[in-house]
Design a protein that fits this description.
This protein is an alpha+beta fold. Helix content is about 30%, strand content about 30%.
Length: about 150
Amino acid sequence: MSVIIALESPRQDGVIRLLNLSDAYAQSLYPPESNHLVDISTLEKPSVSFLVARNGSEIVGCCALVEAGDGTAEIKRMFVDPEARGLRVASRLMDRLEEIGRAKGLEAIRLETGIYQPEAISLYRKYGYIEIEPFGSYLLDPLSLFMEKRLTA
């Protein structure tokens, strides 16, 4: 089967299962004040493009592009089912996120990730994201890494 990425609603059982797995994973690595998770109602807002990755009919990954209203957007809730790792799901999600960002005319895509997630950091660096200072409402946190990729020259 090939992995298909599409804009879908976050409020479906397969996505909720992934969000719960993501929450448990983040909580196993970081204290509550260093977890910057958004809830499902936030993911349903019009300013959010929510992507679902499917392998056949099974939901195996998800992520959101949350527009900030200032020409930038933030990647939130990027997660791939551990059983689907190796299918390039995260790379396919990143490709689609950036495609959406460019289509929307965004200047940059930003993200916050944790320092104990080397696979995520490696993925973002591979896609050209560089470290920046905290943005938006984030505060400096020694457990957080803030990154950005400019989409326009």
